[in-house]
Write a structure and sequence with these properties.
2 domains; mainly alpha; 2 strands; two-stranded antiparallel ribbon
Length: 419
């Protein structure tokens, strides 16, 4: 049994959880809507769950299910009463049952999970309007894509063999698919934010969110818009492209942190330099812009199953090619593989090199230099896209910017390789 101090502390936390949920429910209730439970009732429900849990631990296990049944009966009765009117929702009633469960969890010393879920529940309840707006913007095809990807990730992933196959024993089906889930999650974050904030953005915001989804696609889209816009807006479109390219460096670091935290620590300083340069140049463009603009940027749903499978294939190819090249040609082979692969996709190179360094196939310096080289080659490609697609006004602005970003990334890459 817990001590008196633990009971008092956990009880106080349970009371706060009930007050938090009750405050949100009372604040969200409309004037003409009947109130089942609010700022006073929710703390009582939470304490009921907590005390029932304590009695169950003390040798009276029947108290907990009986108390839960009682709270459930009250919630069901309240729902039937309110359902007679125009308000048909059962959100408050379900929140009351969850509050009881949170209190019971705290009684069984699961205070941290209970408090975490209570905060998350309150956040979801308070975001009713934004979540409804987001649901309206999500199309039917996107729902099907998310469901298909969820089935493949949740059901298929555990069934994949967790062992290495093929030459050099580097292709592990479960690891490959874990990387697909990771990349899709990062890309989906930016995609959902873009849909949540609306199609028309300020170009700076478009650059940030587009960089989370695909900095290359963002560069293509903004370069095409720059050709159609006035020459005075060239600096502003260049700002969006630069922001998306700078976000790429941050995204790369995040991926390495997830796959290989020790390697990320060694990559932190080298990748900070081009990131800082991009931020500095972005501030300069923001201050020097002559005109503001908006952009309607269309990006593909990153949760499409076909895209996930394509990335899985690319990741496997890069992983195998880098391993084979390093085996036959040493560090130079890994650099060539990374530089070539980085022309199309930095993410695949990043997680491949981080994984190979984690498995001891590559030295940390070789892996980080390869990642930086992929960033440099991808930056070169995006600079070329902007140069060829954006028209003369954008070309004059973007060329020195990307030349500096590419040059600094190459210099850092060489320093890491030699270090």
């Amino acid at each position: 049994m817990p001590t008196l101090f633990q009971i008092a502390y956990n009880g106080a936390m349970v009371l706060l959880m009930g007050l938090l949920l009750g405050l949100e429910r009372q604040h969200s209730q409309k004037a003409d809507e009947p109130l089942f439970a609010g700022f006073r009732t929710f703390p009582v429900i939470a304490l009921t769950g907590f005390l029932s849990g304590l009695l169950a631990r003390a040798g009276f296990p029947w108290v907990l299910p009986v108390a839960l049944a009682g709270v459930s009966a009250v919630a069901v009765a309240a729902y039937f009463v309110t359902a007679q009117g125009k308000h048909k929702g059962a959100t408050t009633e379900l929140a009351a049952l969850l509050t009881f469960i949170f209190g019971a969890l705290a009684a069984f010393d699961y205070l941290i999970p209970a408090a975490t879920f209570a905060i998350v529940t309150t956040l979801l309840l308070s975001m009713k309007a934004p979540l409804h707006q987001l649901a309206e913007k999500i199309q039917e095809g996107e729902i099907y894509a998310i469901l298909k990807f969820g089935i493949v990730s949740v059901i298929v992933l555990p069934l994949l063999p967790d062992r290495a196959y093929g030459p050099f024993n580097v292709l592990n089906p479960r690891v490959v698919w874990w990387m697909v889930v990771l990349i899709s999650a990062v890309s989906m974050l930016g995609y959902v934010l873009m849909r949540f904030l609306g199609a028309r953005q300020g170009i700076a915001v478009t650059g940030i969110l587009g960089g989370l989804v695909s900095s290359t696609a963002t560069t293509v889209g903004l370069s095409q818009k720059a050709r159609e816009a006035s020459s005075a807006a060239a600096r502003y479109f260049a700002l969006g492209i630069l922001i998306a390219s700078t976000i790429m460096y941050i995204r790369v670091l995040v991926l390495v942190v997830v796959v290989n935290p020790e390697l990320a620590y060694k990559l932190l300083l080298p990748i900070t330099l081009p990131t800082a340069l991009g931020i500095g140049l972005g501030i300069f463009l923001l201050r020097k812009r002559e005109e503001t603009a908006e952009a309607r940027l269309e990006v593909k749903n990153p949760m499409e199953l076909s895209q996930a499978l394509q990335f899985a294939a690319l990741f496997a190819v890069v992983l195998f090619a880098a391993t084979a090249a390093h085996y036959y040609f040493g560090s130079a082979g890994a650099y060539v593989a990374s530089g070539v692969a980085g022309l199309t996709d930095v993410d695949a190179v990043t997680i491949s090199m981080a994984r190979l360094a984690h498995d001891g196939v590559l030295r940390p310096s070789t892996a980080n230099a390869s990642i930086l080289l992929a960033c440099a080659s991808n930056t070169l490609v995006k600079g070329g896209i902007a140069f060829l697609t954006g028209g003369p006004p954008l070309r004059r602005v973007i060329t020195p910017i990307f030349a500096g970003l590419f040059g600094l990334t190459i210099a850092v890459c060489v320093a890491v390789a030699m270090g």
